[in-house]
Structure formats: structure tokens, C-alpha cells
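Priority: low. Protein: DUF2029 domain-containing protein. Input follows.
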Amino acid sequence: MPYLYPPLTAMAFFVPLSYLPAGAAALVWNTVSLVALGAVVWLTLGIAGIRDGKAKVALTLAGLILATCLLPVRVQLIAGQINMFLLLLVLMDFRRSAGKWRGIGIGIAAGLKITPLIFIAYLVITRRWGAARNAVAAFMATVAVGFLLAPADSATYWGGLVFHSSRAGGVFDTPNQSLSGALARVLSGEQFANWWLVVLGVVAVYGLAVAAWAFRRGADFLGFSATAVTGLLVSPISWEHHWVYVIPLLIWLTVWAHRRRARAVAAVTAVLVAVFTVRVFMLLGIEESPPAPMALAAWEQVIAAMFPLTGLLLLLLGPLWVRRHFEPASAPRDFIAGDPPQHGPTPPREDAADPVPDRVPAGAAPPSRPA
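Result:
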């Protein structure tokens, strides 16, 4: 595989591993990747409102085992990718205790691989200026460190190579689960057409609008998830292992469905888990990288674009569900810790001296006072 990331990423991760035999390097890399996955599960359970220590440990172990079955995780481990570490860095900025340090994880992640930059846009549109400044400062710091350690390579990368997405492979390959990949296969186009950029721009604006709307209803974590899905959709290349960003959403929905005994949400979550676990197109006889991906039949094109189609459905139908279960928050919260705001009138204060209203609508009988 060609090396695609900023020079700092090579020096931080891959140069040290190069001193080990290949087998030992793979063992170290996948072990640390699984530790990062366990940390992602642990953080997500905390965001979902799991507070009991023993239950959280048991659920983290169970979630770690089950999450390794997901296709993005399997490919992450097989191909030795860094996305699990990026997800962990970004997710740390959406927990309750991030405080004044919020945004630094996003900035570092973007400095290692530019795709997390979309989360800075989410911080900006939700007016978290301090976190956005932290993210930009951390990102610029990683770029500066890269120039100090490898000035020539950094100048080559940030001077224009970063924009050459074709280095990653053919945009039309079936493992590319972005909207661009789906468009390339359906329209038999190997190069970006100008109107593709318009479509991607509309999806980006809509997805970030959904994220901001979820935040205003007190659902910051769902705003984070909408931002992650939007970034995966509009990126020129979103290989299957890039979709590890859906793992926190799957865990959160599972906890929510269990607490609310919501069978419909549990069923939808099970379908989502199946979509992100099974390589459906390969089961149906479609090659992973067919020699002529643009020649697939219409139904094969749908099967070969399961991830982006699922992401679009989440952005289109998710707001309807959020509207039903999350009321607008007077002061948007920075996280979701279990139960959303309750519907219905505000309950009376416990220290209310007289629970009987002072005024009674005309024609209505006055309520009786308690004995």
C-alpha cells in the first residue's frame, strides 16, 4: 500500500514499528488497536449514561469482543490502519470531562490524517469557540512539528500532495464506500465531474445542519455522529475501515433501546450492525475490486454502496426520531448522559407553598385542595 498520510504520522507510528520484525510489528499494532477500541467502547458507555463500575467493565469487554466482528474493525486490523486511534482522539472531546481541553483531540487527529477536520466545522457551527480554537491550534502544532522533523517531506505533502486523493486508489473500487465511489460506479466516471462537487457540497451542508440541529435539542453525541457520517459520505475516498466512526453510535443506540425497552430502535440497531458486519456484495458474487465496477447491474450497484446509502438514510430519517424523543434544550448540553429531556409539563417544585393555581379558566370548576 502507498503511504498517504502526513510525515508526522509516519514518524509517530510507522518508523518505530519498522525496527521490529513484521510479525512482531503486526502483533504490537493490533494489540494497541484493540486497546484503543476498548477505550472507545468505555467512553461511549460513559456518554450513554452507564455509571456502575462493574457493569461498565463487563459491558466494555463484551462490546470489545462484539465490535471486532464489525467489518470496519476487521479491515482495520488486517490492513494495519490508524482510524481507531483517530476515533479515540475525536471521541475524547465529546465526553463530559473534556472541559477546557475540548478540541485538542480533534486537532491532533486532523494533523495525523486530515479527514477529522470536519469536526472543527461542527464545533464552529455549534458556537463552541474555545474548543474550535483549541482544535485549530493543535492541528497547526502537529503541522509545525512535522516541518521541524521532516521539512522537505512536509513541504511536499502540505504543499499540494494532500489534495491528490487519487493516490489512495481508484475512486470507483467497491471498497470505497463514499458517495464519490458510488457515483463513479453508477455513472462510469473515473474523474470528478464539477456537478459531483455540487452534490457533495449539498450533502455536507445538510449533514452539518442536522448535526447542529441535534445539538440544539441537547443531543450533542448524535450531532457528533451526524458529523462523522457526513464526513464519510463527502470524502473522496472512504474505505470500509474508515467507517469505524459508526461504532459509538451502534453502542449508544443499543444502550438507549435497552433502557427504554424500545423494540423498534433495537430492531433498527440490529439491522445497522448487520449492514456494517456482512460484506453483502461479496456474498452475492460481486468481487471486492471487480475489473469493471462500472459495469455492475443496477441492483449490484445498490448492494455495492450499502455504507453510503445507510449513511444517507441515517441523516434523512434520524432527525425525525430525534424530534420525537429530544425536546429543544434551553442550554444545549455538551454530551448525552443517558436519558434525554422528558416530554410534558415541568413538574412542580418540591418547595411550592401552594400547588393549587391562583387562577382558574372561565367555566372550569376550581380544583379541590388536598386534605
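Residues 14 and 25 are 9 Å apart (CA to CA). The radius of gyration is 23 Å.
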